Amino acid sequence: MKKHNFSAGPSILPRQVFEQAAAGVLDLSGSGLSILEISHRSNAFEEILDSTKQLVRSLLKLSDSYHVLFLSGGASSQFFMVPMNLLNPPETACYIDSGAWSLKAIKEAGHFGKISVLASSKDRQYAYIPKKYTVPDMATYLHITSNNTISGTQYHQWPESKPVLVADMSSDIFSRPLDIKPFGLIYAGAQKNMGPAGTTLVIIRDDLLGRVSREIPTMLNYQTHVSKNSMFNTPPVFPIYVTMLNLQWLHKQGGLEAAGRRNQEKARIIYDEVDRNSMFLGLADAEDRSLMNATFVLKDSALESDFLEACSAAGCEGVKGHRSIGGIRASIYNAMGKESVSVLADVMKEFEQKFG
Amino acid sequence: MKKHNFSAGPSILPRQVFEQAAAGVLDLSGSGLSILEISHRSNAFEEILDSTKQLVRSLLKLSDSYHVLFLSGGASSQFFMVPMNLLNPPETACYIDSGAWSLKAIKEAGHFGKISVLASSKDRQYAYIPKKYTVPDMATYLHITSNNTISGTQYHQWPESKPVLVADMSSDIFSRPLDIKPFGLIYAGAQKNMGPAGTTLVIIRDDLLGRVSREIPTMLNYQTHVSKNSMFNTPPVFPIYVTMLNLQWLHKQGGLEAAGRRNQEKARIIYDEVDRNSMFLGLADAEDRSLMNATFVLKDSALESDFLEACSAAGCEGVKGHRSIGGIRASIYNAMGKESVSVLADVMKEFEQKFG
Q1: Best label site of A90, A326, B35, B54, fewest CB within 10 Å?
Q2: Whole-model pTM?
Q3: pLDDT of A255-282, one tens digit each?
Q4: Interface test with A, best of B36, B43, B76, B323 (most A CBs within 10 A)
Q5: Which fold has domain A15-252?
Q6: Which sequence spans correspond to the domains of chain B?
């Protein structure tokens, strides 16, 4: 039976990427060597790294004033690296609290300077994106989490802000067109639309480098990785290789405009069914619904395990909501086909016929 | 033509590990899902993580007082995490300088307290392991680099030290039996004898946790990863998976005692040829020679490029010395067969016949 992987991350990647990656593990482009055993200083890997960087630049239409880095440690490491590298006391950094990941970023930033949380949607279990606030002109940056995997919300319009935007885009980068101009720094763990777990993309505008006076360990300083082209130490070779394969696939599929259209269509299939079906209730406000993670609950929560069983019987995996809030979550990243989303919508229809 | 990969790291792994890893990329144990797309919270990955941990424990015969962590960021991140987590001002940490990697560890430690470099082999281009020094009883720890990939030296006896040993074992962990008792903390980037690039093993003794008063970002605190079993955030799933496959292979080959014997034999083949052959000169003192990285030069350096060509023609890849010192370096990690080492020794013999 075909499996439909609705996991929130690590998550589905295109079948052809798995096939190419497996081939590279056995023999990288006819070299007689595995991608897992080549030196990171080899020409073969330098070409992979350069290609991956160029794909990021081309897909996001980055100007020369932005640097593209492949680090490790996940977005969780960026939670502290951002303020460590950008925030000079007594400056203030502003944060918007749109969920658990925002809160973690806020917590880590507190070690490095004054943090002002301008708005939060905690009052309604993060079911919406906060919108009513004013960003002080003097703030060093405004930090947002562009997509919230747990509650299923997403920014569909960037905040008005004179200070530069810093965004955790772990769960929606490369899922729609992006105008880079308001952003000074974007970071993203790879394991949703970018690649497998194990590398973290950081895009940083040149003027934000070297702006603090504190001592920073070499590995935690963005300048180190800019000056060494992400090769200060051995980078995560295989996760970068698979990222390249995946971004090549994305490029061939028409880039971010086409991806954005496909993701809109897929989200419509699932949200239309949530709204139509008498058994389910969407969790996020309609205008802030995520195109990546559709969250909903059964009106009768006693039926949840039956629904999860029905999903499983149809090959739909990973639809259980995040352990902190429960319910149902269907993550429908770039690589998920419309037909898989329709399978889940059909399960919901059949569930209504049986239990409604 | 068969390739013999003498690369210093990332480096050779067993062929069957590549085959199993490629199979897992296509379909993990018949699950219908790729290892690259499964959730790190899935049972499948929890089993992989637990197995990998158990293999580390069993191969190294670790008692319950040691924790086993799989982090990311390479040994380069441990250079600062070690003193950040262990060194409480005004305490002193002692370091032995046996090469470039030691120096990097010393440099990063300087951010966090008083560092005393007890001995260095810089006076003779790091061609030996420093031995004449006394470790002050009051030091918090003594840091060593157990194997030095650039100069080709290795500790064959641990220093006498009342303070606990901390070791960077990136390039020789799992290559020989280890008595864990003198060690408080061991760290190792995976990309030599452990697995592919992308994860870092940290073994830490329980009593060294939580010993400093400074504020530590959550991701940089060993306690975080101990309490969350290396799952505070998404771990590098695939590098850990391949580490498991590789350690399973090592276990089946007879564990560390057998690996140590094989590595002795392989090193003897190459060093015997270096010493016998009139064209070459070993770089490291005989008693400190590394069993992992054999370094030597051509007595007539003008012939170096001819020798590199001869190696290449025989399928021997990655034998060029580290860019900082040049010469020849043959890295002969666990997965390299005796027959590959013999191929290189034969190239050296033939080179002598042709150019000697």
Answers
A1: A90
A2: 0.98
A3: 999 999 999 999 999 999 999 999 999 9
A4: B36
A5: Aspartate Aminotransferase; domain 2 (3.40.640)
A6: 15-252, 255-355
